[in-house]
Design a protein that fits this description.
Elements (H helix, E strand, L loop, with lengths): L1 E4 L6 E2 L15 E4 L3 E8 L17 E6 L6 E6 L20 E8 L5 E7 L3
Length: 121
């Protein structure tokens, strides 16, 4: 996984921005960071939803605090394995603080969506 990073302070930047918020005169660099984190929050959206997701409801949506910087949080779905349906794990089976790792599901040539799988600590 790649995020922007300030070359002066070393702080990670998310979401990506055209101007470095920590040192505006210095261009942010893209750096590879750990793709692991912990579940910070979980919800289960129910209808009415966007039409493309109605048949999948209820499904889980999680917020993950990254191990590389716990103040950076990404949203996704917990799945049992890459490519699994977003409703494969019921939200009642998910615990705050669980260790997870990102897997990406490519929606098209330009959009990879983060999904998360459980990992052992």
């Amino acid at each position: 996984m790649r995020l922007q990073q300030c070359p002066v302070t070393g702080r990670l930047i998310f979401p990506p921005r055209p101007v470095n918020p920590w040192s505006p005169r210095d261009k942010a660099l893209w750096t590879t960071v750990s793709s692991t984190g912990t579940i910070w929050s979980v919800i289960a959206p129910h209808p009415p939803l966007m039409l493309d997701f109605t048949d999948l409801a209820p499904y889980n949506a999680i917020v993950v605090a990254l191990d590389a910087d716990p103040t950076i949080r990404l949203v996704g779905n917990l799945v049992p394995e890459a490519g699994a349906a977003i409703n494969a794990i019921a939200y009642e089976e998910i615990e705050i603080g669980e260790a997870v790792q990102v897997v990406f599901e490519r929606i098209n040539d330009e959009i990879p969506l983060p999904r998360w799988v459980r990992r052992m600590r």
